[in-house]
Write a structure and sequence with these properties.
Strand 5 (94-99), helix 3 (111-122) and strand 6 (125-127) form a beta-alpha-beta unit. The chain is built from 14 helices and 20 strands. The chain is globular. 35% of the residues lie in helices and 26% in strands. It has helices at residues 35-49, 73-86, 111-122, 152-155, 178-181, 188-195, 218-230, 257-272, 296-307, 329-338, 342-351, 355-369, 380-385, 394-399, and strands at residues 2-7, 10-15, 21-24, 59-64, 94-99, 125-127, 136-141, 147-151, 159-165, 167-169, 173-175, 235-243, 249-256, 273-276, 280-286, 310-319, 371-375, 389-390, 405-408, 415-418.
């Protein structure tokens, strides 16, 4: 069998014997929908759900940052803004806010990649406040003790429109929807408080903090409570998209936040989970190419998904170009420093949680349970310093594999679900 895996902007072609493959996991068939259909969904949803007095309302449009380029904000955020203008919204009363979470600011010259050139000419495009305390407003405190500090430009808005994709998320269960509001445009410290709920009292990962799990997931429940506080006195419309196993948009919906989000989660599960009868001796997975593998920090999502199809002590190969390197300096530092001592990192997180260190802890956990190779733009020295095996020639790597396993060409998007 010939297998094609994307790595950055190139495609690797690999030959592997048919009898070694348990399956190529790509989810259920779901044809991509035309851009014009998505435009129509956006227009209809905004017409139906935006307030009648939109001309008098202060508006905030929340959009993904540059780790979510697959949602095609450059194509669809202009549709949102143009539709709002047709409904009477004044661009002078509108701000477009990039939901950074704890990620670094996006450079202004890259704003058209996220919001489209039209929007950059029409309304202010800004990064969310993140660590800038001067731009944060206190909304309240959740029952779990999370201080809800929100980017002022969103806190002052009278109607919020969120655009962004839904995907499986290793901490919140699902990314998208409410998560673009909180933690998306929240303050750094608020985000750390929320995400610290991912650990139990011993410093180990909470068992219900995982992909596709919402009920009983303390991180998700805290997010929902925070969002209820934020939206108590204002309206919110959510424009949702979801991509299939090949990274193409197959679903779009626009309307009330929770209903739109939950419907999109169900659609995502229908298409982007892959049932498996048994776990494999190996998994070969790609993060999906340049829209999803620019940095190791984000490409690790493909790693977590791929591991769901792997036996204990099995072999996993992650293909991710990582053009922009690690993606987060603290993540890289913790990965290198604690790869042989995860307990020390877990204890450190109990006294001072931060998300990059937590992701490092989860990666280290996988590195200790499986034999993981990385085919990327990193040097051999850098790859091994992070705890991965260095793989340059994927074809040679495949020839040495024992047993049978799975290929996941777009592991960012596909979650294996074991029957056992």
């Amino acid at each position: 069998m010939q297998v094609r895996l994307k790595k950055g902007r190139e495609t690797l072609q690999i030959a592997i014997a048919d009898d070694k493959i348990e399956g190529v996991l790509s989810g259920s068939a779901a044809a991509p929908i035309p851009a014009e259909t998505i435009d129509a969904v956006i227009e209809e949803g905004l017409h139906r759900h935006c307030p009648d007095d939109i001309a008098a309302r202060k508006m905030a449009v929340i959009i993904p940052d540059d780790t979510r380029l697959w949602a095609r904000g450059d194509r669809y955020v202009p549709t949102i803004v143009k539709t709002l203008q047709k409904l009477g919204a004044d661009s002078q009363n509108m701000v477009i806010v990039i939901a950074l979470g704890t990620h670094a600011d996006v450079a202004e010259e890259r704003f058209p990649e996220l919001a489209g050139a039209y929007c950059c000419r029409t309304a202010p495009v800004i990064n969310s406040a993140n660590r800038n305390r001067a731009r944060l407003d206190f909304i309240g405190r959740t029952s779990r003790g999370t201080d809800v500090l929100l980017t002022r430009e969103v806190a002052e808005a009278e109607h919020i429109v969120i655009f962004g994709g839904v995907l499986h998320h290793m901490i919140a269960g699902f990314g998208g929807g409410r998560k673009y509001l909180f933690p998306g445009v929240a303050g750094y410290d608020s985000i750390q408080q929320n995400h610290s709920l991912a650990l139990d009292e011993t410093g180990l990962p909470h068992p219900l903090v995982r992909q596709a799990c919402l009920e009983g997931n303390p991180v998700n429940e805290d997010i929902e409570e925070a969002c209820d506080m934020v939206l108590q006195d204002r309206g919110c419309t959510y424009v949702s998209v979801a991509v299939n196993g090949e990274g193409e948009i197959f679903h779009a919906r626009a309307g009330e936040l929770r209903d739109t989000f939950m419907t999109s989660c169900r659609k995502l599960n229908e298409v982007c989970t892959a049932p498996i009868d048994r776990k494999g001796d190996f998994v070969i997975c790609s993060a999906g190419g340049h829209r999803t593998d620019g940095q190791l920090y984000q490409a690790s999502k493909a790693l977590f998904n791929g591991a769901e199809a792997l036996k204990h002590d099995g072999c996993l190969l992650l293909v991710a170009e990582c053009t922009d390197g690690h993606g987060n300096a603290r993540f890289a530092d913790m990965l290198k420093r604690h790869r042989n001592d995860p307990a020390a990192l877990g204890n450190k997180l109990l006294t001072g949680f931060d998300m990059p260190s937590y992701i490092a802890l989860r990666v280290i956990d996988l590195l200790r349970r499986y034999r993981i190779g990385l085919c990327s733009g990193f040097s051999q020295e850098e790859t091994e310093e992070m705890g991965f095996s260095y793989v340059q020639d994927v074809s040679s790597y495949v020839k040495k594999l024992d047993g049978t396993g799975y290929i996941i060409p777009f592991a960012e998007n596909i979650l294996p679900v074991s029957a056992s």
